[in-house]
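Minutes, project check-in

Agenda point 3 was the complex the collaborators sent over. CS summarized: three entities, 1018 residues total, and the question is how they sit relative to each other. Sequences were read into the notes so everyone works from the same version.
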Amino acid sequence: MLRTSLYFLAIACAAFFLADISVTTLDPWQEFARMGRGLLTPDFFNLPDFGQALFNTVSFALVGLTIAVVLGALLSLFFESTPVRLFCSFIRAIHELFWAFIFMPIVGLNSVCGILAIAIPYSGIFAKVYAEIRQESDQRPAEALPPASTRFSRFCYGTLPLIFGHLKDYTSYRFECALRSSAILGFIGLPTLGYHLETAFREGLYSEAAALLYSFYLLIISIRIWARAKFIVIPLLISCLFISWETSFSLVGLSRFFLYDILPWPMRAEGFYVGTGELVLVPLELGKWFWDIVVSQALPGIWNTMLLTQIALVATALFTLATFAFASRRFFSARVTGCTYLLFVVLRTTPEYILAYIFLQLWGPSMLPAIAALFLHNGAILAYLTANNVNALESTFDAAQGRFNRYLYEVLPRCYGHFLAFLFYRWEVIMRESAILGILGITTLGFYIDSAISRDHLDTALLLICITAGINMSIDSFSQVIRKRLHISGHVASRIIGPGESGS
Amino acid sequence: MNASLGAGDALLSLRHEDVAYSGKIALKNLTLTIAEGEKVALIGPSGAGKTTLLRRLYQLDPNNCAFVHQHHVLVPQLSTFHNIYMGRLDHYSSWQNLINLLKPTRSAMQEILPIVQKLGLEEKMYTRIGELSGGQQQRVGIGRALYQGGSIIMADEPVSSLDALQSLEIMQLLVEAGRTVVAALHSIDLSQRFFHRIVGLKHGSIAFDLPVRSLTEDRLSRLYG
Amino acid sequence: MKKAVKPEILFFLLFSVLVSSLSQAAEFTFTAIPDQDTARLEQRFSKVADYLTDALGFEVRYVPVKSYAASVQAFKNNQVQMAWFGGLSGVQARLAVPGSVAVAQGMEDVRFRSYLIAHHSTDLQKSKQFPMEIVGKTFTFGSKGSTSGRLMPEYFIREKLGKSPEELFTRVGFSGDHSKTIALVQSGSYQIGAVNFKVWQKELEAGRIDPKKVTVIWETPEYPDYNWTVRGSVDQTYGAGTIEKIQQALLAIDDKALLAAFPRQKFIAADNSMYQPILDTGRAIGIFR
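CS then shared the predicted structure for the full assembly.
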């Protein structure tokens, strides 16, 4: 484990030298003063459509997640089959924002688009994690059943009761993530909290932005109160009933998207400017089209994405190791852990785009603000999970004296495996998220995808999305290989994380 | 049921057999016959091959054997009823099993009630067994074997995690659970008290196979020496 | 929880039926690119929608979008039948939907301009000459799909300096919109920026610009920009002559409050050919293929 960690550290150091990093501070203080004033004077009474946005944020997350649970559970049962595994890996490799972009032309920019953009990638995530929980569960009860029992009975009696608690807790942990995703979807125009947050922030209306951010923090902190497993049906029903299910779905739009817009440009070029929409097949031109995109966008995009991801990954790890102790009752009093908990909520709930913008003001444009935004966000999540893990460890009454000794000898060796497992899960997440920081002018894959979409070159966008998904899938399987080799898994711990803890 | 066999007939037998366990030979050149009505204890130091032998014997006639597992193979999240019911999952369709999981049917309850009564667990019929004591859980394990049926009851260390008093109770229930009982034990005391025939295993071979009254201190100390 | 699963599935089924049975409403909708003051898009444009409803005699609704790309996609897929586009997004939309027409533009849009703005630390002053000194500085555009914040500035930079922005500047960012471009150059995060002249004037009047920190250093030549574009199919759906009626309704707007939403003094007639320079420029720098 130590050796693997050191390899990653070495790669990140090398990447740091290769990456485009600089600090060009001039005078951010005027903007910071305005932001600070906004944070101190949140304006809760002037928010347009606040109730609707809040309702949409929760509804998209809840309905999307419910669909994902059903689909994910079904898919997880067939997860031993390679096509299913690849399919799941593919659908979760694409960021929610890009799913929304894909659904937008098909169903329009509305609730259904938002729900699908959450439901699809989360199905892939649930399929994978549910399957892993099942595979890693105690097999002995199932093996002890009469040999002639059917597979279904064996599963219902020997496996499901054992893992049901894990599944439930993991699902409720994911609910918080879905709420965040739902809010972020507002950035491209879905009517959630993120819509108004991004707008207020972009317009420099920092008092409104602060009020929206604070509400979002409160929403996340209060999950454990209102989102109990037993009562969740009620908000779910309300969501289903009051959400706007109106779509502008049309077969014309659907076929236009799949049979025209995403076809490679050389096939469409001739008919495009004359307006006939005629298609031609020109294999040589197609090859050139593909090669041009790969050389001019995909390769530089992959390079920058990988640099950013590797640095942010290790920075996330270091941040976690440095901070999780402050959130653990093993080390500090309730007051300290409470404050740290709040800080973690703030860091993981504040959209990365906003974090990046703050650091952009502070350091000027380079990869540095992106790294900071990614590692603070992901580190806060990881540190929170690790602290929960540590709290659940059994400790002896005669444990080592002194926090530092206890940290090094009692806690770190015990939790390091889980920590690494979580970190490797986060790896693909960090890579996916590096896609949305185009404001910094860092040419990651996401930057090129965004460019292609804004140019209405949907064929290029889709090719790049597929390439991104491919990279993500290889990182995913690579991280799985490492986890297998190191014999580490995050699922034992997933039982004790998240707000579901109280409900189980 | 092997009704054609009279009392004392051989139920299970191994002749000069090597038994491999995960690729390694665990038992060498083994010959053993178990007859109907016998109560046989397998003893010996850890790693001598007791569990391997028990499994091999089970495989000789799985439809006629009911295995009393250690309590960790029970499903703690399910009730006593369900854990006992699981002994006969193969007798019912998947659909019936699903219904019984969600809400036990009257007929299944009536089948299981006598067993639960015999084990003294009537009040715990619908309690999740994770909430039961170790002794109660082990009784549920015996209940499952009883429900499963079969003329041979087998058990692997059935009392390893219980205190002395509970152990006596469980052993009593166990030897009464079937006409023929084969159990791997590590308590010499219990094996002498409840079984008629003691088989001592060491390094994958049978060191002795004696009626309980012929067993001497000397033999025992050599087995564990 | 176990019991809760069943109603969930039921509702999922129920709603999938509901969703699929919803037919498309034949409501007339329009959108507008979110180029500035996006916090009050709804307020600004719902007034326009009310006006059009009265003038046209059928229900007109405004649909907000969050990005230039989304407005084009919505137009393409007939989710809106009309849009207030920028020059670039308008050309994109009309290319994607053959038969659609530009019907009106603002008086100012005939002769639109962009400003290059600089942070005071660069010591650049306003000049008629193109400021060659910007080479080697950090630079931010507005939105990637903006005409005044991206397309035309990029075009003139390429024309004057003969290279792409990526080659000329140490770093090229996309702030997302004009207001953020100003904020980022004002704070010195980027040294140079390109911005819509109307937005600059508005922010200046609103007192959000500190002239000591950020100044205009160059003004681009004039080019055509924003326009109202209508889908060609509107005449079939809403009756022949509807496009004509829409055009007349737009040209007839003289309510200052309505015009302030854009902000324009007046709308005048436009047609597709006026935007040929935008198409040519876009093709020259690879935005159009």
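Noted in discussion: Residues 1-7 of chain B have pLDDT under 50 and may be disordered.
Follow-up: revisit at the next meeting once the mutant set is ready.
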